[in-house]
TrEMBL record:
It comes from the Bacteria. This is Uncharacterized protein. The lineage of its organism: Bacteria, Bacillati, Actinomycetota, Actinomycetes, Kitasatosporales.
Amino acid sequence: MSGVGITLRALHDGERDLEHDLLAAAERHRTEHEFHHVATDVARWSREHATRLARIGPGHGVELSGPRDHSSPGALAALREKAAEALGRRPGTGLLLLHDLRELHLAAVRNSLHWEMLAQAAQAARDQPLLDLVSACHPQTLRQMRWTNTMIKVLSPQLLTSV
C-alpha cells in the first residue's frame, strides 16, 4: 500500500472516530442545547468525509468501509440521555464538557493534518480527484477545529474558576 493509501486509511478511520465521538458527546451533553445541536450537525461532515474517502480509496489501492450506522441509537443512547438530563448543569458536567471538547479538538486537528498531507501529495502527483476531495472536505474540518476551540475559550473561564 502506498503512502497515500495509508494516509487515506488513517483519515477515514479518524473521520469515522470523530463522527462517533461528536455524536456520543452530543448525547452526553444533551442539556447543553447549543453544544448538542452543533455537535450533531458537524458530525454529519465527518460522516460525509468518510463516505467520500471510501469512494476514492480503491483508486489508490485501499478498500475503505462506508460510514458507521447510527440510525438506531438503542438502549445505551437512551441511558446516556437520561443521565445527561439527571446531571443537568452540575460543575462536574462542565469539566466533562471541557474534556470532551479538548478530545474532539485534538481529533479534528489530527484529521486536518491528514487532509493537509493528502493535499500536498495530490499536488505533487497532479491527482486532481484527490485534490478536489481535499478542497471540498478540509475546510469543514478546519471549521470543526475552530468551533471546538471557540467553545473551549468561551467555557473555560467560567467552568475552571467555579470548581
